[in-house]
Amino acid sequence: MAAVSGLLGLKKSVGFEEHEWGSAKVLKDLDLKKLSRTQLRNHLEARNCEAKGGKKQMTQVLEDSLEEERLRAIAHTQAIESEFQMNRALEERGSVYAVGTGSSGQLGQGDTEPREVFTVIMKTRDLGVSLVSVGYDMVLAVTEDKEVYTWGGMGVGPTGIAVSAEESKADFLKIKSEAEFKNDGEADKFMEPRVIPVLQGEETIEVGIGASHAVSVTAGGDCFVWGQNTVGQLGLGNFERNDTPEILPGIQNNLPVVHIAVGENHNLAIVKSVEQDVQRVYTWGHVADGRLGVGTRERIGAPKDKKEFFHAPTLIDELVYEYALEVACGPSHCMVRTKNAIFSWGHGGGGRLGHGDQNDRYKPAVIEALQDMVCLGISCGTWHSAAIIMVAPLNACGEVWTWGSGYHGQLGQGVSNRSLSPGRVKEISDWHIYAKSISCGSHHNAMVDHSGELWTWGSNTNNCLGHSIEEREVSYTPVPGHCGGFGALVDRIGRGMARSVACGKEYTIVATYPYEGPTEAIAYELNEEAALRKEEEKLQAAQERHDQETKDRAGERSRRRGNIAVTDESREETKKGSTESILDKNMGTQKH
């Protein structure tokens, strides 16, 4: 047999058998002392070891080599486990998860691939993200420390970071393959979360994204704006673009902004006056379709090409006597929740305003179908809207009502694909599930229920719902489905309960609380206990079946014995009757 030299595990044929020379997997089952000199040499050379000396020396070299490999494997395993434990600790402190379309880096994974299941965004681990907000293909996130992070949009949207659109897009277009992508230091811009430096230390509490601009609000009531400004959507009194956040000039004597909502190219802001005990609604941006709610189609005195653009915050007079609690914007329609009612206005196509028709509204109008109900939350999608309606005696969660166009199942109202007035999502109510928050995407919805569980329904393009659906002929479902894995161990790592959820176009982003469930060891014990209980229940059920069968057989035997006794008794009665009949007959003959 020729000497074997080369790589570890080199295979060599001997007759009809094939041996893997030098393999620890093979050698562990062999008695090395019984190997021939030729076999020892082949194994040693395959392991790149010196094959000299006698058999005893060669055997010792082979043993030492195997022991060194074993120790290296242990060290490698320990290093991997140590790294895993460190990563697990980070993720379990609260993270952000993404699923669905990732073509513009909106999933924060460092690439543009879609994800079929909720996948952790590595750079959000331990950030304590408390709020997520999404645009078409871009995400903003606010942390507990009130910092703002951004990712997605190929870096050409309102990132808030001073990188030119041309530079960022050119970098993105360099990507030709995954290998090139990983080796290109510039190409990963905005494919993963990056902090917005200008907003550091500003104590941001809320953010919103439009098609090409963004808005944020601070704890002190300041409002920052950035991005494109072609239609005055920044509200700065001009039409100049701002790549980095700039504070919006004071609204009504510098009153604080407490809540904002951002549409495609318009905005709503709730401004608070403590002295007057009111919260009023201001708006600015593009007035098309009546989306600003100011009752007019153009700005008086403006140049002809700027008449539809309101480039400074404007009070919505129709709501001046209402105490506004929450505002919401779709691309071309709006809603506001006040202490007394829910109002909507803007584009009415598909019935998204909930007024029983498809007419546009240029002023806020009360949604009459919800007039006598207590609303806890609102959300606007592209062609549909949703509200959470309180159900007594609960006061912090309620039923989900939807309206508008639902050709992708986003209404959750069975086969209905359009509802001009609000209607209940029947399954959620029938299952006694109550919503705490709701987010409408372009064609799907996400809801966090009273126990922190996540539910989604509507379009499932690129698996953006985060769970499988029963439908096979279409890629959508009107039936709310549960997204498992939150508040549980997934691949040995604990995921917290859903804290904030936002739906974009064909993708979903979820921020979680820190994980508070059982540790891996406890979970293993619980699983073992559950398995034992299941086995005990199985044995108990089998014993009960056996006892019942024994009882049934005993009863059957008893019934049979009873039947035999009755038969014998019947024979005696028959025999006795026959004897008496014969005696009677004889006595009658004697009388005659």
SSE topology:
Elements: E1 11-14, E2 17-20, H1 24-27, H2 37-46, H3 55-91, E3 96-100, E4 115-120, E5 129-134, E6 138-143, E7 148-152, H4 165-173, H5 178-183, E8 194-195, E9 204-209, E10 213-218, E11 223-227, E12 242-247, E13 257-262, E14 266-273, E15 278-286, E16 309-315, E17 324-329, E18 333-338, E19 342-346, E20 361-366, E21 375-380, E22 384-390, E23 398-405, E24 418-424, H6 426-430, E25 435-440, E26 444-449, E27 454-459, E28 476-483, E29 488-490, E30 493-495, E31 498-503, E32 507-512, H7 520-591
Antiparallel strand pairs: 1-2, 3-4, 3-32, 5-6, 6-7, 7-8, 9-10, 10-11, 11-12, 13-14, 14-15, 15-16, 17-18, 18-19, 19-20, 21-22, 22-23, 23-24, 25-26, 26-27, 27-28, 29-30, 31-32
Helix pairs in contact: 2-3
